[in-house]
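Methods: holo model generation. Sequences were used as deposited, without trimming of termini or removal of tags, and paired with ligand SMILES retrieved from the corresponding compound records. Each pair was processed once, and we did not select among multiple samples. The sequence and adenosine-5'-triphosphate SMILES for this entry were:
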Amino acid sequence: MGKIIALCNQKGGVGKTTSAINISAYFALMKKKTLLIDADPQANATSGMGLDKKSVQKGTYELLMGLASEQEVLVKGPVDNLDMIQSSVALAGAEIELVNMSAREFKLRDRLQQLKQEYDYIFIDCPPSLGLLTLNCLVAADSVIIPLQCEYYALEGLSQLMDTVGLVKQALNNKLYLEGVVLTMADFRTRLTGEVIKEVQAFFKDRVYKTIIPRSIRLSEAPGFGKPIMLYDKLSVGAQRYKVLAKEILSKQGQPEVAADKQALEAENIGLETQLHRTLTQDELGEDVNQEAVGNIDDQS
Ligand SMILES: Nc1ncnc2c1ncn2[C@@H]1O[C@H](COP(=O)(O)OP(=O)(O)OP(=O)(O)O)[C@@H](O)[C@H]1O
Ligand SMILES: [Mg+2]
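and the model returned the structure below.
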């Protein structure tokens, strides 16, 4: 029986898709039979894996709506052991179409029952919202990975996300838990990145992955070539980090789960946002932001 992990954060552009593509590619490299489901109508994971999102006939939308079978929506990914279910703009309609359906939160879960038997790991790239699509992903999932960008507003809206995870656990999917928090786009030259890392680690403790993903030009280029980083530039810093992150995630499997207990999370979150605000409302913030503007880490340097 496989495990379903949703990459979720309603905030846009935090590294959900980049993490979903590269973690699933490295899981496949580690000989885990892996499926990546693109559940975002933007279809960035689909194009990032080298597939043409404009020509998708049968993908996540058709699976969700019962218009295609599990076997019909599966396509081969760019590496061995990796399959994909593609997204397309049609999926945007699902958000509205689901509203009037019965058991609307359980559609994806029900459609993944069979596939769960066939894969070791299923990763879901969620859209940047907390609507019905994301709800379907959280109900279908065993656990959640939250990517957080190392920037000033990283934790904005996190209480809302944790609240949603807590409510889903309470009412719709009591096995759901927080798998881990991955810090992305870190620029280690700035004090801001250091502060964000420190604060996130202070509150999420061992739920934050030790492997932090740096800001990397190669990582931002790879989707334009439709390739996971391992096929675009496997020696780049970004590739090495995602490889180590995938190993870290895998090494934590089988350990006792940290329950996404709603009350505990709420208590944590209230403290989290207050404390972070206090730490970062400092005069030097302006200086850090300017430093950030200087440039990115070049993988080749
Ligand atoms: N570590 C990184 N270094 C540099 N650029 C990155 C890195 N991670 C992601 N990016 C770039 O940042 C942008 C946002 O990343 P990504 O698409 O993974 O975020 P997302 O959370 O999936 O966004 P959305 O909410 O729109 O789905 C993309 O252009 C991506 O190529
Ligand atoms: Mg995305």
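Confidence is low (pLDDT under 50) at residues 258-263, 265-301.
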